[in-house]
Amino acid sequence: MIETRDLTKKYGDSYAIKSLDIELSQGDVFGFIGPNGAGKTTTMRILATLLNPTWGEAYVCGHSIYTHPKEIRRAIGYMPDFFGVYDDMKVIEYLEFFAAAYRIGGQQRRKICDEVLELVDLTYKRDAFVTSLSRGMTQRLGLARVLLHDPQVLLLDEPASGLDPRARIEIRGLLKELRDMGKTIMISSHILPELADICNKIGIIELGELQVNANVADVMKQVRGQVVLDVGVAGDVEAAGRVLEQHDLVESVTQRGATLLVTLVAGAEDYSELPTLLIEAGQRITLFKEEELNLETAFMTLTKGITS
Fold first, then answer.
1. SS3 for 55?
2. How far apart (Å, rounded) are the C-alpha atoms in residues 286 and 60?
3. Average pLDDT along the chain, 308 residues, taken 10 residues at a time
4. Quick one: DSSP state of residue 306?
5. How buried is residue 212: exposed, middle or buried, by Cβ count under 10 Å (0-12/13-18/19+)?
């Protein structure tokens, strides 16, 4: 659905993006993350045929950005990080205006507008003026607008930017619903833990170059290194720590409040003996699990915070 080959954009001597190679299939949800100025928006604008690359090639739904831009625009829904709304329009009028621009007419236009309003949970605001909407509602209206023509591919640039926690949760739920509908989605965001919950692939870009382009699970394995366990006991925490420190699998034990942070030696994966060791020492286990990694950890490990 999306393929880029050596995609490059230069401004003078500076590279906004450099030699990007991305390949997404139907149904993929690609989390595009990186520092501000890393090249995320530039990439999306090129894929949306709003900006020409310096060199390289990109295909969207099998169409080249050079030779078939109109076909690409029919197949995508592009939502920039900031978009304008018309002050003197009601929500339903706003959507009908854009539906008409997509040449959706008559009864079908009203039906589609009602359907997308229901999808983004804005039916109750259909007769409200767009200027009366909150930031979260405006973002949902923006999503409704790009869904009017039922695009196969969605390019969403920071859709959760500036939203409060409730609005972010609502947007995340909507994105999951779109994923379940089989849409191919490229989404940039700084809300990294939420991307891990939505995406099956991620790309980490820095200084215009992709540092990581892989499945989420593979990235976590790359960052993980040594296994770290969270261990809790109902008895003496310090005594439990001393018991664990004696085992050959354990490199270090650190007390963190009422729990223990147990780091295993490099390469250790089978730690099934450790719970038995604690039980035999008279400890009652209340918590025993691997410490979870998230995209924030991966991002901080794999990037240096450099921007172009």
1. strand
2. 51
3. 95 93 93 86 96 96 95 94 80 94 88 93 92 88 92 91 78 87 88 73 88 78 74 91 92 89 85 92 91 64 58
4. -
5. buried
What element of type H or E holds 297? helix 295-302
For 35, residues 6+ apart whose C-beta sits below 8 A from its C-beta are: 206, 303, 305, 306, 307
Domains in the chain: boundaries: 2-88+137-217, 225-295
pLDDT value of position 190: 64
Q: Give the span between the Cα atoms of 42 and 32, in whole angstroms.
A: 12
Instruction: Tell me how crowded residue 267 is: count the other CB atoms within 10 A of its CB.
Output: 8
Sign of CA dihedral 177, 181, 182, 185: negative
Coil/strand/helix, residue 230 = strand
Sheet containing 76-79: give its strands across: 76-79, 153-157, 184-188, 29-33, 201-206, 209-215
pTM (2 d.p.): 0.77
Domain 2-88+137-217 has CATH 3.40.50.300: yes
